[in-house]
Description:
Elements: H1 2-10, E1 23-27, E2 33-40, E3 44-51, E4 54-59, E5 68-74, H2 83-89, E6 102-112, E7 117-126, E8 129-144, E9 151-162, E10 178-189
Antiparallel strand pairs: 1-4, 1-10, 2-3, 2-10, 4-5, 5-6, 6-7, 7-8, 8-9, 9-10
Amino acid sequence: MKSFLLAAGLAFGLATVAVAEPVEYDLDPSHSQIVFHYTHLGFSTTTGMFSGFEGKIMFDAEAPADSSVEVTFPAKSLFTGWDARTEHFLTDDFFGADKNPDISFKSTSIEVTGEKTGKITGDLTMNGVTKPVVLDTTMTQIGEHPMMKKPWVGFEATTTVKRTDFDMGMYAPYVGDEVTIAISIEAQKAE
């Protein structure tokens, strides 16, 4: 049973009993972040972040691989810690936020690879370009939230994308083309 619950949790849900149909879970925007970093001319590593976004998870306890996740957030929620850099990233040189205001991820498959690990394949859309990505995922915790008193799950995931694949290749290869992405989220059972 323990292995089943861990695998189920990894597939972005929380089940204490088996259910016959998918159950909806909502991301907790106050505890969900996407952090990315890339090399700058070989001298340093520069970091940016998206936070405060929302999304939903449909969890199938009987068939965790049939679960799904969808997240959409505004490109303008970007934070880099340097206003001029943030403003430049939002232009057509990079995210093209005026023409393509949203960034989204929609899963296409989930492969449970271990008791606390898995691979989530999905379509990432940014700057008007959609490409498949694979998130290497680890479930961090599953159980009842001690303050909210409702089912909760957390996970962390990583992936690497190339800026040039999304028509965001300005200054590549001097400014790193590969961008490492780290995701940390919490999700609560929907009301």
